[in-house]
Amino acid sequence: MFKILFEDDWFLAAEKPAGLPSQATVDKSRPDFFNLLKKQLQDERGKDFYLALHHRLDRDTSGVMIFAKNKEANDPLAGMFKNHLVQKTYQALTRNRKMPETWEIKNHLSEVRDNKLKKMKMKSTLSGGDKAHTKFRIIEKFKLGMLVEAQPLTGRMHQIRVHLAEEHMGIFGDDIYPCNKTPVAPRLMLHALSLEFTHPFTQNPVKIESALPEDMKAFMLLLQST
Prior knowledge:
The protein has one domain: Pseudouridine synthase (2-Layer Sandwich). It has 4 helices and 11 strands; from the N terminus they run E-E-H-E-E-H-E-E-E-E-E-H-E-E-H. The protein has helices at residues 33-45, 71-82, 159-165, 214-225; strands at 4-7, 11-16, 52-53, 62-68, 87-94, 102-114, 119-124, 130-141, 146-152, 190-198, 205-209. The two termini are 34 Å apart. The mean pLDDT is 95.
């Protein structure tokens, strides 16, 4: 059962576990979060329950995702993401490196194919590409790593991962970008902690939070005590 974090007449937010794609992949037999959540809600509330997807998290990223509950909510939710009116906050466990308490990265990212991994990835580029902007803050330093807050102000694929990796601060458990391999992380140590926005229908401020999951808490203890 997926945890519902927020619900009103227009929107529903739920907690995505790590390891599930956000949406259906080319392999139609593979489970995905959106369709499993929709089935859970339809089993509970009736087969006509409506749910629409408007943003994604990487497969191994956990945390909060928000959906439209009716067709009236689709355009406003899509517009909020398109116009960057949703403040996303993530937490990541990264390699330890001497950095200022806060910093930001503004550059351009383009998609390239990694033939060794047989996957698409992002890299910074001096010409072309799409603008990418992330604000970072160190929350806590440990013996073998750091807990870092990331707030992406644009929505590029793998944006936080590549911005940290190119600063030699790869996220533990990353299977695409360079990172420290010891201690061994059970998965990508990246969590979508919260979404904040002004509600397009009520005009009230909304903040939806997803607590740091147990596997990241356990790994954080490992970084402290090893």
